[in-house]
Amino acid sequence: MILHTVESGDTVFKIARKYAVSPMKIIENNGLRDPDRLSVGEELLILTPTKTYTVRGGDTLTKIAARFGVKKSELYKNNPQLGGTDTLYAGQLLAIHYDTPTGGMAAVNGYVYPGCDADRFRTALPYLTYVTFSGLKTDGEHIYPLADFTNLRRTAKEMGKSVLLRVTGIGEDEAFAKQPTR
To answer: Taking CA atoms, which of 32, 36, 41, 101 is between 20 and 30 Å from 11?
Structure first.
């Protein structure tokens, strides 16, 4: 763990390069709302990985996880630049372990609606405990999907997330199905 004192001309990206860490990790670990506005003298927490690995040709995220005895989801958390995908290139530096945990425990639920951007979904997925698919409606007798979530559900399950379904009884006219009218 390092405390970096911001100097004139520093940017998150310059600091990240200096310590060979992800700019996103600096932003997340320090709760920076506007990473383009650092104050001279401000102290930033820099968590440096205790174990890194340089990707070689033929490596896959699954093989790397097995080699180091970690879950793929942990590699996604430690490497937000992956965007929740398995795309690797030779020479890429991956963080395997951090010495200091980056936060407490919390169960986090994310909602997925029809039209959800798949890339954004994969990027957020490592940080979620549950994924709730919100795009099912009922007429009181049957449940109808409003979108095909098959691929997103498969991705969530592959990453070990608990999948929940949210069903509403609200019809297209914004009234509850089978609701008595007066």
So the answer is: 101
